[in-house]
Each structure stands twice: as C-alpha cells, then as structure tokens.
Amino acid sequence: MGHDHAHTSQTNRARLSLAIGIVATVLVVEIIGAWLTGSLALLADAGHMFSDLAGLLIAFAATVVAARPATDRQTFGYRRAEVFGALLNGLILVGVAISVTVGALTRLLGADGGEVRAAPMLVVAAIGLVANLAALLLLRPAASTSINMRGAYLEVLGDTLGSVAVIVAAAVILFTGFEQADAIASLLIVGMIAPRAFVLLRDVVRVFSESVPVDTDVAEIRRHLLATSGVVAVHDVHVWAITSGAHVFSAHVVVEASVLSGGGSGALLDALSSCLAEHFDVDHSTFQLEPAGHAEHEDNPHL
Predict the structure, then answer these.
(1) Which pLDDT value is given to residue 43?
(2) Cβ-Cβ contacts under 8 Å for 150 (sequence gap 6 or more)
(3) 8 Å CB contact between 162 and 129
(4) Contact criterion met (CB below 8 Å) for 158 and 150
(5) Per-residue pLDDT reduced to its tens digit, 167-209
(6) Strand pairing category for 282-290 and 231-243
(7) Torsion (CA) 159, 164, 168, 171 in degrees, nearest 10
(8) For residue 233, what is the DSSP state?
(9) Distance from the first to the final alpha carbon of the chain
(10) Among 59, 77, 210, 276, which is least packed, fewest CB within 10 Å?
C-alpha cells in the first residue's frame, strides 16, 4: 500500500509538472492577447489562468509534502497536506470570481464598454482552449483519487470552459459588433468558477471536520461486521478520511467468549480488516476486541 501511494504521488507530480508548463505558457499568451485586444473576457480568463498556475504550484508542493513518511509526531504522515492545498485552491478561485465580477459589472454599467479587437481575441482564446484540453487529459486520471489533484483538475476544467466562453464572445463581436458580449462572457466565466470553488471548499470542510466520507454507509459497515462469525455486537464506530481516498476506521467489537479463550483473535481481526478493505475501501482499520459486558466499564460509550 505504501509503495502504491508513493508511485501514485510520483505520477501525480509528473502530471502536475507538465500541466504547470502548459498553463504558464498560455498565461503569458493570454496576458499579451488581452493587452493587444482590449478584451475583458480574455483578461478574466488570464486571471483564472493565473489562479490555475498558482493552484497547480500549490498542488505540486502538496504532493511533495504528502509523500513524506510518517513520524512519531505525524503518525498518519503528511497526506493531509493535499487537503491544505485544496483549501488554498478553493480560496484562490473565490478571489478570482469576485475580482472578475467587479470588472465585468463596471464595464457593463459604465458609459464606455471599451473597444475589443475580436479577431486576435478569437485566436488567443483558441490557443488557450487547446492548451487547457491538453492539461485536462493529463490531470483527469488522478482527479478521482486525490482531493488535491481534483482541485487542480477543476481549476483547469473551469478555465477550459472559460476559453469556450471567450471564443463565443469573440465570434459574436466579430460578426455582430456587440462588444458587451465580452463583459457578459466574463460573468459566464464567474458562473463556472463559483460552483466549483464551493464544491471544493465543501469537500475540504468535510475532511477537516472528520465527517463520514460521503460514499461510506456506517450502517452497512456495521451489518457486515455483525455478519462475521464470532462477532456479537459493534459499538464506538468512527469513520473519517485523512485525505480523499484514504479512509480510516475504528470500532469496539464485542466477541464470543470462545474467540478470546480459544486463540481466535488474530483470525477474526484478519477477517474484519479484509471485509473493510474489500467492501468499503478502508486501508487503515483498528478494532478493539471485547468480551460481553466490557462496554459497561467504558467512559461515554456510544454507537
């Protein structure tokens, strides 16, 4: 398991390195393009691209820190560094959404909407779209296994959709002369950024508050454990996540007297751990085996 996680971290760092190179290159292109064309939507997309770059750099740093081994002070290792990285990514997205909204409303409500050069704006946006699609293909395989990588993936996804919005706005201006389409596209970009920021920050809060992972059914886990031969009752159940995909479980398990007296504790622990690993994707489980009546002596027992 440790080897698999280390290999995954190395793969994620490689993917992030390539994505960082792509995003940094396109960021420069979009900033120059926004300056040459006068496009607020392109500038907004560049601002989002800058947040992407910052987020990817944070995500890369988090994967390096998360790969450090556990110590006596950090007994679960540093894997939660990925969650801190996701938190910073979410806050960056919120900041970009606010700043773009202010700029777009100022242009829409102002007397001068600003002159926009649609043709070069379209070319730059198309370059950004191709680059973002390439970055998405790099990050997508890891987005389902790491909250940190999912944060990076969502940022690039938002910027990909932003590039599409800029392309549409440029086409509208080019063929109709409706320059307010530029500011409207900026607000559409905000509409795509804000929900993703909310989802990412919500997931971070769930991890930090040690809530039960959304894809985990505690009642179902309890039913599986009770169905194991030798188990009488299960209480003091706790399920939480160190980071995305790294679930931790602990419980007190009341067992038949013959299990404890007959030396069957080891086999039962193996069965319980295997059950959680195979059916609920829990890679770290701890069980306290107890004789009947032991719970009466515990402080603050609960289900």
Answers:
(1) 77
(2) 86, 143, 144, 200, 203, 244
(3) no
(4) no
(5) 998 899 888 888 888 888 888 878 877 887 888 899 889 888 8
(6) unpaired
(7) 100
(8) E
(9) 30
(10) 210
Smallest Cα–Cα separation from 226: which of 237, 215, 216? Answer: 237
CB 229 within 8 A of CB 122: no
- Name the residue among 246, 249, 247, 254 with its Cα closest to residue 230: 254
Q: Which two tokens stand for residue 190?
A: 């905000």
Sign of CA dihedral 146, 100, 170, 120: negative
Q: Are 298 and 251 in contact (CB under 8 A)?
A: no
The CA distance from 154 to 193, in Å, is 9
β-bridge pairing 246-255 and 231-243: antiparallel
Which DSSP state fits 114?
-
Q: Which helix (H) or strand (E) holds 238?
A: strand 231-243
Question: What is the Cα–Cα distance from 30 to 44, expressed in whole angstroms?
Answer: 10
With tokens 């031969």, the residue in question is 229
Can you tell me the distance from the alpha carbon of 151 to that of 51, in angstroms, rounded to the nearest whole number?
11
Lowest-pLDDT choice from 10-19, 173-182, 276-285? 10-19
Residue 228 three-state SS: coil
Q: List, in sequence order, every residue forming a beta bridge with 253; answer none if it has no partner.
A: 234, 289
Quick check: 173 and 208 in contact, CB under 8 A? Answer: no
Stated pTM of the model:
0.71
Q: How many CB atoms lie within 10 A of CB 80?
A: 21
> What is the rounded CA–CA span in Å between residue 56 and residue 152?
6
**Structure tokens that stand for 98 in this block:** 């606010």
Contacts 24+ apart (CB under 8 A), 43-47: 43/103, 44/100, 44/103, 44/104, 44/162, 44/185, 44/186, 44/189, 44/190, 45/125, 45/128, 45/159, 45/162, 45/163, 45/165, 45/166, 45/189, 47/96, 47/99, 47/100
Cα 122 to chain centroid distance, Å, stands at 31
Q: What are phi and psi of 250, to 5 degrees?
A: -145, 150
Residue with tokens 């609960």: 302
- The CA distance from 32 to 57, in Å, is 22
**Cα 70-73-75 angle, rounded to 5 deg:** 40
Cα(172)–Cα(180) distance, integer angstroms: 10
